[in-house]
Amino acid sequence: MNRTARLYALVEELRSAAPRPVTVAALATRFEVSARTVQRDLQTLMEAGKPVRSVPGRGGGWSIAPEMTLPPVHLTADEASALTAALAAAGATTPYAGAARSAAQKIMASVTGPGSAAARHLAARIVSLPTRTGSSVRDAVEQALTDGTVLRLSYTDAAGRESRRAVEPAGLLTADGRWYLIAWCRTRRAGRGFRLDRITAAAPTSERAQSHDLAGLLRGSTAADAAQPAALARLTASP
Q1: What's the pLDDT at 132?
Q2: What is the DSSP string of the chain?
Q3: What is the pLDDT of residues 19-71, one digit of tens each?
Q4: Does pLDDT of 239 surpass 60?
Q5: Fewer beta carbons within 10 angstroms: which end of the chain, N or C?
Q6: What pLDDT score was predicted for residue 2?
Q7: Which residues are paired to 52 by β-bridges?
Q8: The model scores a pTM over 0.90
C-alpha cells in the first residue's frame, strides 16, 4: 500500500473505531509499518486539517471525530471489480476523471478481504491506449459546468473543419464510450453537441451563462431520446 492510500485507510481505521482511541502500535501492526511511520502519517493528517487527535493517558491513543468522515464502505468482490473497471475508463477526456480517481482511491483504501483482492487482480489485467487530448480541456469543461459560465473553445468537427465558439454549457451526454458537451452555441444560435476529444482547446470565462434545459437542447437531434442513466437515478431522486 502506498502512502497516499495508507493515509486514507488510517482515517477510516480511526473512524471505524471511534469514539474509542487506537494505539500507534495497533495501527503499525494493522498497516505493517513502523510506529515512527504511523506517527509521521498521523502528523500529516493533522497538518492537512483532518480531525484526528491524540488521547493521552492509560487507554489512550489516536481518535477522530466520527461525524467528520463517511461510514465504512463494504464492497463485495463484484462491486469492487465494477469500481475498478469504471475507474479504468476514466481517461483524460472523461469529465471529473481526477475527482473520480481520488474518490475511488479513498473507497478502495478502506476495502479489505475478497473485495480488495478482486480489485487488485482485475486492475492488473486492464490496459488502455493513451488519449491525444490533454486534461486541460476536461478541466475547463468541468469548471464552466460547475460555475455556470461561458466556455470558449476550439473545435474540429468530423470533416476536419476547425472553428472557435463561445458556448453556454447545459450538460453532458455519454454514448458509445464517448462524452459530449451539450451547450447553446452563440455562433450557431442553437443547441449543439461537442465531442470532448474533438475540443482542441478550451477556456472558461468569468461571464455568467444563461440557463438552458438539457432535454430542450437535445430535442430534434439524434440524441432526443437520451435518458438519465439508471445508476444515477437515486442521486437525483427527491428524498
Answers
A1: 63
A2: --HHHHHHHHHHHHHHHTTS-B-HHHHHHHHTS-HHHHHHHHHHHHHTT--EEEE-STT-EEEE-GGGSPPP----HHHHHHHHHHHHT--TTSTTHHHHHHHHHHHHHT--THHHHHHHHHHTT---PPPSS-HHHHHHHHHHHHHTEEEEEEEE-TTS-EEEEEEEEEEEEEETTEEEEEEEETTTTEEEEEEGGGEEEEEEEEEEPPP--HHHHHTTSTTTT----HHHHHHHS--
A3: 788 999 999 998 889 999 999 999 998 888 888 888 887 778 888 876 655 55
A4: no
A5: C
A6: 74
A7: 64
A8: no
First-to-last alpha carbon distance for the chain, in angstroms, is: 38
Grid cell 468537427 in the structure block, residue: 157
Q: Which three cell numbers stand for residue 182?
A: 451539450
Query: Would you call 145 exposed, middle or buried from its count of C-beta atoms within 10 A (0-12, 13-18, 19+)?
Result: buried
- DSSP per-residue string spanning 158-208: TTS-EEEEEEEEEEEEEETTEEEEEEEETTTTEEEEEEGGGEEEEEEEEEE
**Residues composing the chain:** 239
Cα distance between residue 213 and residue 219, in whole Å = 10
Tens of pLDDT, residue by residue over 185-206, are: 999 999 999 999 999 999 999 9
